[in-house]
Amino acid sequence: MKINRRICSNSNSMLHMLAETKKEHGNELYKTKQYHLALSFYSEAIKLCPETPSYYGNRAACLMMLNRFQDALEDARRSVQLDNKFIKGYVRIAKCAIALGDLVTAEGTLRVMETLNQAGAVAAEKKSLLKLQQFELEAQRAYEKKDFRKVVYCMDRCLDESPTCPRYKLIKAECLAFLGRYVESQEIANSILHLDKGNAEAIYVRGICLFYEDNIDSAVNYFQQVLRLAPDHAKAMELYKRAKQLKKKKEEGNEAYNAGKYADALNLFSEALKIDPLNKMTNAKLHFNRATALSKLNKYEEAVVDCTAAISLNPNYMKALLRRAKCYMDLENYEEAVKDYEKINKIDKSRENRRLLQDAKLALKKSKRKDYYKILGVDKNATEDEIKKAYRKRALIHHPDRHANASDGEKKEQEKKFKEVGEAYGILSDPKKKCRYDSGQDMEDFGCGMSDIDPSQVFQSFFSSPHGSQYSFGGDFPGGFSFQFG
């Protein structure tokens, strides 16, 4: 028996010596930052003497340098299980917990260190813990207020202390998605899924990005995947329901519109817009769809408001720009229509878009001239006889001699109108001038502007012609003409 005990003792001593040699090799490699090689020697030492706390402590330190904090935390915990007064073990638990954003473990470890009168050994970790607690609280309050920019700021400050914490990264990614910064958000989620394909939070973030990029069907699939992994994931369940509801309302609105039920479509698109105010891409389309329905109901001003809302959510939304420009044309607000068509041509200078811009500019040019049809009170398709009859009526109403006893102000107003009526007739009664006027050309360019038309001569010429009649207002007209007014 004594011989057997001596053999076992010698065997254990040899194993311990060999393990110590492995540890020393590991330490040398650690000092030269050859962490992967050092890790293998520490692991060999643990295999030889699995009850030695310092070996786990050393391997934990090596794993920390390789950013494998979860594995390091397990080794550090094992070291203090073997020796509840192993200070380095507690220090590494605190460091790993901080790196992982595990504030509960970090706080508990700091309390243990205080009982061991070793609080100074983790002073830096205590400072980091307080900072993390502060920014986590601020982030929580900001999230509740939907101040997602503030949350991103707080998470960046937390990541300064815990650069590998997936929880902080994913909270940041979620809020980046809410802010429309989908590329950054997905990069974070993908980096985590590369290491952990079953991370429900990362899958949820990818679902958010797809949902807010108006890829609703794919988003629904991702939310379903999250709920299979984590059935109690409340946020995924909420967005899953919201995505299905939004898709349903949008489709119902489209069906009503295609069936010619524009008022019903209007109501359905309005209901859909209330479902998720954060969904900019889908809401931009809903605003555009509602504007289209409003246009069908001849509610152009309301349609402009919806198009503007769509463009504010998606500045290069071509369909919304085209619809708004068309509405401005229908409202005869040609200046705004020209502005929109100019924006459209910067995005897509197609032949059709160039034509629309030219048409809007022509309409604007026409709108700034006197409307001779309106002055005479006739339609743009009026016949020659209708133009003559209209002139006869208006000229007699506004002729200055008929207002000889009026006030000076009234005389000037009637003289102005008489002149305009003469100009209108001078242009519209001449087929060539009328054609040029109707096409929007500048009359002055052809030597037939307003300045070359004498309204009195037009009047005298008209009423002295075979189709005119003899009138008099009790006095002579300029040029010696006298007409009997009856």
Describe the structure.
It is a single chain. This protein has helices at 2-31, 35-48, 53-65, 69-82, 87-100, 103-115, 123-144, 148-161, 166-178, 182-195, 200-212, 216-229, 234-258, 262-273, 280-296, 300-313, 318-330, 334-347, 351-367, 372-376, 384-398, 408-428, 431-438, 455-464. The protein is mainly α and 486 residues long. Helix 3 runs antiparallel to helix 4. The chain is rod-shaped.
Quick structural summary:
With 486 residues, this protein is mainly alpha-helical. Helices cover 74% and strands 0% of the residues.
Low-confidence blocks of residues: 1-8, 446-450, 469-486
Distance between the termini: 153 Å
Q: What's the average pLDDT?
A: 88
Rg result: 43 Å
**How many β-strand runs?**
0
Beta strand %: under 5%
Instruction: Give the class from helix and strand content and strand pairing.
Output: mainly alpha
Total of DSSP H or I helical runs spanning 4+ residues = 24
Question: How would you describe the shape?
Answer: rod-shaped
- Listing every helix as H and every strand as E from the N terminus to the C terminus, the arrangement reads HHHHHHHHHHHHHHHHHHHHHHHH
Helix-residue proportion: over 70%
Give the biggest sheet. Answer: none
